[in-house]
Task: structure prediction
Amino acid sequence: MSRDKENESLTLLGERNTKYPGSYDPSVLETFENKHPDRDYFVKFNCPEFTSLCPITGQPDFATIYISYVPRVKMVESKSLKLYLFSFRNHGDFHEDCVNIIMNDLIKLMEPSYIEVWGKFLPRGGISIDPYCNYGRPGTKWEQVAWERLSHHDLYPEKVDNR
Result:
């Protein structure tokens, strides 16, 4: 199969006139085929410019969002992920909701073996919130990995001096 035929479902990659979503929009997410489905490996995305809105005050919240996943058949295309994360800019939800929504949308999109999403939000009102969620495909070794990572998550908290 030619490269062009193989990637014909990717409509955003290479598009020069990118249109940024004005509101939360998981429909912008696109996938491509994992060329190494016989191997477990992690893919990690870091989004240091994530913004959303407080659902009560409407004030902006800023975070770095970390997404790590072990693909199966499908993988998320990075430009579509960037546009998807940008779509939270005018979306009002609590920090904990944002990371869970992101994870749920990516599970629905890709059906990964494993995924985790960690939001490290900048302080507002003198406190920062760092929600973490994960998922391991039920009935696989990744279900146990998810429990282990969750139950041991952040046992050694970082020194927070960069926020």
